[in-house]
Every structure is written in C-alpha cells, then in structure tokens.
Amino acid sequence: MHELVFLKSLVIIFGISAVVVFALHRIRIPSIVGFLLSGVLLGPHGLSFIKDISMIQMFAEIGVILLLFTIGLEFSLAKFLRMRLEVFGIGGLYVLITVALTALVSYQWLKDTNTAVFAGFLVALSSTAIVMKLLSDKGELDAPHGRIGIGILIFQDLCVVGFMLFIPLMSGGGGVYELALTFGKAVVIVAIVLLSSRWLVPGLLHQIVHTRSRELFIITVLILCFGTAFITSEFGLSLALGAFLAGLVISESEYVHEATSAILPFKDSFNGLFFISVGMLMNISFFLNNMRLVLYFAGGIILLKFIGGLFSMFLWRRALRISIQSSMNLAQVGEFSFVLAVAGLAAGVISDDMYQAFLAASVLTMLLTPFIMQVSPSVSRRLGSLGFLQRLARAGDVPESEGLPVKRKDHVIIIGFGLNGRNLARVLKEADIPYVVLELNPDTVRDMRKHGEPIYYGDGTNVEVLHRLGVETAGVLVVVISDPASSRNIVRTARKQNPALFIIARTRYAAEVDDLLELGADEVIPEEFETSLEIFSRVLSRYQRPKNEIFNFVDMIREDGYRALRQPGAAARKPLLDKCTVLANVAVEVFTVKEDSPVLGRSLAGLQFRTRTGATILAVERNNRMNASPDPEFRFEAGDIVFITGKREDINRALVYLSEGKI
C-alpha cells in the first residue's frame, strides 16, 4: 500500500503541475514559476494533497544533482580554470560583502553577533539550480553576465562547507581544529576529483565504450555523477558541487556528447520535482499572518544582494550594465540556504520565528527570480545610462577605454572578441581592411593590445562608445557576442546612428533571426543553421561528390533556409541587385588567382572558360588596373582578381575550374 500511496502522490504532483505550467505558459510566464506555485498549492501548508514531502525532497535532490552535472558537462576544465577570477575573485568578494552588509543590518534588530553573521551566511547563497536553468534556457551561459553569475554560484557552493562548519562554533559546540581539518579534507577531495579527469576517467570511459553496450555506458556515467556527489558530501561539500565537478571530469573526454544525451532524459524528469519541493516548504498561513514582515524580509534580501553584487563587480572593474544585470540575476536565496537554516535551527543559532520568516521570504525571492531575470536586461540598460552611475563606472574603467578611436572611415566594427571575432580580425588584417574591436573582458583587452590589436574596452549597447568607434562613418558592423539581449540593443542603437551601415549579427538559434532583422540587421547568421550546412558539405565530400555540386547544394539550402527564416514583414534591408527581378537568377563572384593555381599562364581561349563553365568573366584587376572584358588571348597571372558573373551553378563550376584546373 505504501508504494501505491507514493505513486498516487506522483500522479497528483505531475498532473497538477502540468495544468499549472500549461496555463502559465499561455501567458508567457516561465515554467519554474509554475512548478513553485504547484508546490505551494499541493504541499502540507496549501491544499494538503501531499502531507509527507520527504520522499519528494529526495527526488528533488536527484534533480539538482543531474542539473549541475549537465552544466558541468557543458564546461571544460580549461574553461573552469579560465574563470578563476570570476570564481575566486568576484565570487569571494560578493560573498564577503553580502555577509558583512547583512550582518550589519541584521544586528540592528537581532542584537546578537552570531545570529547576525549567520543571517549573512543564509543571504549570501544564491540559487544555483534556478539561475543556471534560466541562463541555459535563454542560451546565456557564455554571455558576460552568464560567466560572472556561474563563477559566483560555484564559489557559493564551495562556501557551503565553510558555513556549515561555523555553526558549531557559533553555538559553542566546536573548535578551530575541527574547522581546519574539514577544510583540508575538502581541498584534498576536490584535487583528487579534478586530477582524475586527466588520468583515470578518460581511460575508464574508453574501456566501457569498447564493450559497445549503451546500458553499461549509461550506468557508468550515472555512477560517476552520483558517486562523486556522494563522496564530496561525505567530506562536507555540497552534493551540487560534487555533481558539477563530475560533469567537469567527463567534459574532458571525447565521450562528453554521448554522456549528455544519456543524462538529459533523467535530468528533465527529476528537475521539476526540485522546484515543486521548494514551493511545498512555504507556509501559506504564516505568510498571510505576517505578510508585511515577509515582504520586508524579501525586499531587504533582494536589495542587500543587489548592492553586494554591484560593489563586488565594480571593484573588479566589470562593465556597469553587466554588473547590474548579474546582480539582479543573483538576488534570490539559494536552495542550500534551506539546509543551512535547518542546521542553524537545530543548533539554536536562530529561533523558530526567524526560521519561518526566512523560509517564506526565501521562497518568495525564488518565485520572483524568473520575472527579475526577464526584466534585468532592460533595467540594467536604463540604470546604466544614468549620468551619476556612468561617471562612477568611468572612474572604475580599465585604462583602455580612454583610448577609443575618434576618427575612422569605412572601417569594420567588431563587437566581441571570441572565436568568431578573432577569426574575422585575422582575415581583415590579412586583407588590409581597417577595423576596430570592442570587448567587455578587460583581461582580453589588455592581452590583445600587447599583440597590436586595435581592441578597446567598452559596452556596445552604449551609444557614446559606438560614437567613439566611428559608427557614423563605419562601413560594416559585426556583432558576434553570446548575449541575445545585448545583440538586439546594439543592432537597434547602431541602426539609429547610421541608417546606411551594413550590420551583420551572429545568433545562436534560428528563432532569433526575425527579431534582429526587424531591429535593423542586414544579415543574421544563425549558428545552428550554418552548422547544418557544414555537416552535409562534409558528408558529400566524404562521398567524393564534385565541389561545384556541393556548392550548388549549399546555395540552394542557404537560399531556401534563409527565406524560410525571414518571416513576411521582417524589415530586412535588401541590396539593390536583390530588388531587380531582371537579375534574380544572376550572381557575381570574385576570385583571386594564387601562385600555385593550375590556370597560371593559360589563356581564356585555351581554357575554353565560357564553353566549359557557362559563366562570363566581366573583368580582371591586375596591379590596381582594371581590364574590362578581357580578350580570348588574355593569360592569367598570380594576384589577378577575376570578376565572374552568371547563374549560381555556373559560377560554382567556374570557381572549381579556376582553383583546380578541371571540373
């Protein structure tokens, strides 16, 4: 009968949750809010459909473990080490300032130092599960505010063990020796886990994969996930941190994608239970009877965390807009604060009334988080434009921001210096095309300026920064950042400043193409779509299909695909040739003859160029002199720039002929 009771509970939970989440989805409210509200309704303090939540909490912990494990899989150890400033620098300062501010404010009412400091511990932790879930859903894990948020969350999880160890000291039941011993154990276990990613796990997974048993592979991945979480928890660290470290370990192997696909179904199944279990903790009657107190608590927590985050990022000279957005994203209480609060209540550090008030306020901050994160881009942009805050930000800017160029013409502006930005800058430098780069990472700016890059520190959403980059006289603006909201703002601002500017924007998902086109982008490159083109090109090459045939397929899919992505009414700007129906099937391409080209020294008549390709050579540029309509005896030399026109399939055939000497 016990099994049937548990099964009945699960049916009720998932049934009610599905209805609530679906109803909220119709009015565009995030699913996390639906899960939290479902928990409030179903729990022992709501409609009492579920009276015993211990089993639900157990499954909820599994959901958190799997969530953090998949986040770890998306990282790599190298990327984690590159984020050491965000983790230990900004994260450490954030926790220190938040604890100090909370303790200072709390002491005015509590009049007890230990309890005030413990209140600081509770407030200093943010919700890893909620923030990472929302950042992942929005594709902003790699955005500047996403990297800062993740770094701070990782450090907060590291702090859980320290906060737990301080509880006996605050209640008078522990010593400094025990504290130091447990810290030492924690450092050792983290080192062992990270070192195993290089020597132990890759070899183990290699042997498992060779068995060709998917079941064994999935079991092994789950053992690594839950086993590492269990081991770290035994040494006083959080389960979530252990799961994240396990994901980091596997991310270093070549089997990371297979592991991700194996875990995702389990993660999605259990993850909702975590948010439901959090909602079940909220005592509705206590909230209604003490509504003003709880609202004050919740507002105070959000304000203190926002101030703490803003100061910590300002001291590390992060951009004002990014600092505001990151601080807003982290302005809730974390799930591990509940564990800490229970331990504090048992040790007598906090009273039962304080525990209940904190619990209600914490759930309320979690409930508000999706809405806060939804408006954080626009709020951060507006606050960042305030005069006194801009003066404060300039006082903390890195020196490179003072050297922004003023006078340029017909140059390329690159926003973002990740992989795409670096490759574009390299090509522009080789092609002798002037360009400037804008980047928000001060360390990247300093390093690249030492290598002679025309790179500057600044926020592309700031119209003043774009002016100093010469947006009014620029020829092309390329936006290659991993922040959808900022990309939209940059495109909108740049289009207003220069209606003739050609704007190219990179986006991660095809669904974002329409928004960017409507805001003024001329071309939008969705990564997922272009990746599909590269994949089928490689497949056709493997089967030795002719290159011009592959080019034709790429052009066909690209033309059909982008036409489908651009919905009717999208305000895309079309070049003049695109508007001429007479030239609808005609294209123009440019080809540079290289020193090792097989057509060197050969004439157009000898190549039978027009007969064999169907394309026409309009002109050839040699030594900055244009030779229009070259005669049949014209012979190619290295460095010639050939202008070719014709149908797209004919041009593709011509390009292959010029580069390989055959079709």
- Estimate percent helicity: 55-70%
**Total DSSP E strands:** 10
Name the shape in a single word: elongated
Mean pLDDT: 79
Number of domains: 3
By CATH, the topology of the largest domain is Na+/H+ antiporter like fold
Using the CA coordinates, give the radius of gyration.
30 Å
Q: Which range does the strand content fall in? A: 5-15%
State the separation between the terminal residues, measured CA to CA. 76 Å
Largest sheet, described in full?
6 strands, parallel
CATH architecture of the largest domain: Up-down Bundle
Q: Write out the strand line-up for the largest beta sheet, numbering strands in chain order.
A: 3-2-1-4-5-6
Please give the CATH class of the largest domain: Mainly Alpha
Tally of separate helices: 30
> Low-confidence parts lasting 5 or more residues at pLDDT below 50?
395-402, 567-584
SS-derived structural category: alpha/beta
Summarize the structure.
Helix content is 66%, strand content 7%. Helix 2 crosses helix 13 (256-280) and helix 2 (31-42) runs antiparallel to helix 18. The protein has a six-stranded parallel sheet, sandwiched between helices. Strands 7-10-8-9 form a four-stranded antiparallel sheet.
